[in-house]
Amino acid sequence: MVAEAKQVIGQVFKRDDVFNEAGWNYVVEHHGGRLPLRIKAVPEGSVLPTKNVLFTVENTDPAVPWLTNFFETILVQAWYPMTVATASSVYRQLITHYLHLTHDTDEMAEYMLHDAGYRGVSSVESAALGGAAHMLSFKSSDTVAGTSLLRKFYGLEGVAGYSTPSSEHSTVTSWGRNRELQSHRHMLDTYHQGNNTHMHTHTFQNGT
């Protein structure tokens, strides 16, 4: 890996004096390739005000003091699920607030913001991270990958997000211009309970 990195970085910068080959070989020889880094973080799921440190990275070997900065790019990828989780949490608070002002119960609040963001992200992995983050505040979701992540890494039994048979572009337009009414009738006849007949389901796109 060190040899490959030397070759690639040399071509990227078009010079041979940028990549610290000796330093990386030191990591291999003295630490068996393991990184001498100590990472500390607040407990996962903590709700913190702004201007707080979320995690720190500390070098434990003074011979390679430059090592910490190399991993900033990887570690800041935690930004994405944290941002989705924060946004969904704020939306949940807003929805609950106005339900209290206008309704006699807020028991349906957790179903009132639906995630159809699977189609709006860059990969299945992104869908899983964003979808799971949304499910911390809401139970309404088409992003099944979020449930899969929670089942695999957090021991979830069952599912965390629920959906309904819904009408949208293709399920209506495929009936033709003059048969729109029949398309909705068919939906209601096929799914007697729990259907959601609306023209557009993309009510929330993770990260977009």
From TrEMBL:
Keywords: Glycosyltransferase, Pyridine nucleotide biosynthesis, Transferase
Enzyme Commission number: 2.4.2.12
Chain ranges of the Nicotinamide phosphoribosyltransferase N-terminal domain: 1-39
Annotated Nicotinate/nicotinamide phosphoribosyltransferase domain residues: 112-189
Reactions accelerated catalytically: beta-nicotinamide D-ribonucleotide + diphosphate = 5-phospho-alpha-D-ribose 1-diphosphate + nicotinamide + H(+)
Gene Ontology biological process terms in this record: NAD+ biosynthetic process
InterPro entries for the chain: Aldolase_TIM, DUF5598, N/Namide_PRibTrfase, Nicotinamide_PRibTrfase, Nicotinate_pribotase-like_C
Taxonomy, superkingdom: Eukaryota
Pathway terms, separated by semicolons: Cofactor biosynthesis; NAD(+) biosynthesis; nicotinamide D-ribonucleotide from 5-phospho-alpha-D-ribose 1-diphosphate and nicotinamide: step 1/1
GO molecular function term, any single one: nicotinamide phosphoribosyltransferase activity
Similarity comment: family membership: Belongs to the NAPRTase family.
Identification of the protein by name: Nicotinamide phosphoribosyltransferase
Gene: NAMPT_2
